[in-house]
Every structure is written in C-alpha cells, then in structure tokens.
Amino acid sequence: MYPLGVDCxxxxxxxxxxxxxxxxxxxxxxxxxxxxxxxxxxAQLEKEILQLPITSLASLQTSVPRPDDFxxxxxxxxxxxxxxSLYNYELVCLPKTPLYIQQLPNTYxxxxxxxxxKNALYKNTIILNIKSExxxxxxxx
Length: 141
Fold this sequence. Notes:
The strands form two sheets. Strands 1, 2, 4, 5, 6 and 7 form a six-stranded mixed β-sheet that branches. The protein has a two-stranded antiparallel ribbon with strand order 3-8. Helices cover 20% and strands 25% of the residues. It is α+β, with helices and mostly antiparallel strands. The protein has one domain (9-135). The model has no long low-confidence stretch (mean pLDDT 90).
C-alpha cells in the first residue's frame, strides 16, 4: 500500500546499470514493484542506502531548501530525483562517480531486477516520467 503522507525513497536502475534514488515528498507515484517487494522493505530503504560508504562527490543541479539528504545520496553514487508533479521526478543532485548495480550486494540486485527503467538514462534525464518507464505504478489515494 502507498505510504501516504510519508516522504519515502525508492530506487531504480537505468539501462546503463546506474542507480537512481527518488524522493516522493509523500505524494509522488511509486512503481508497484517497489511497494510490494518482500526483499527490501520500502520503509527501511533510505536507512540502508545511507549506510553505504561515501564514494563520490555530489553536484547539486537546482536550489532546494534542505539539500543535505540529496547530497548524502549522491555521495553514495546515486542520481537523486525529487517528486515534482503527478508522474514526474526532477534531477536535483548527481554523483561525480556513479554507482552501478553490479557494485551492490546481491540483495539490492535482486530487488532492482523489477525496477529497471525501460528507456531513460540518468545521465541524460532531467525530468523523469515514471509512467513511461514502469508498467504498474501506485499513486496516493
């Protein structure tokens, strides 16, 4: 079930194997596979990502009121997107040294096998429409 009103994160992998993290602001659409996963609990995902080692410098792409979380994710190699409207997420921060799926523990690889973007590449995508990338998505009710 959609975590309504909770600013949670979910992750996906692009066609190059790079990783992205998406912050919902409690309103953004989420792929159904991220919500229904029994491998990694959505509520614990942010904490688990932030336990990964810092491996990159981060580059903010836009001004945000509190950039710390965005920077922390990018420092771990993730492209960081924030919810902007209905199905869209906007790139806020990017890593100088991206993290690839094959660099993650197997638990993440298993989780991400159902969260692969159909078309978009993070390095070329400022606004990402998840409705065009995933077959089933969940919206807040």
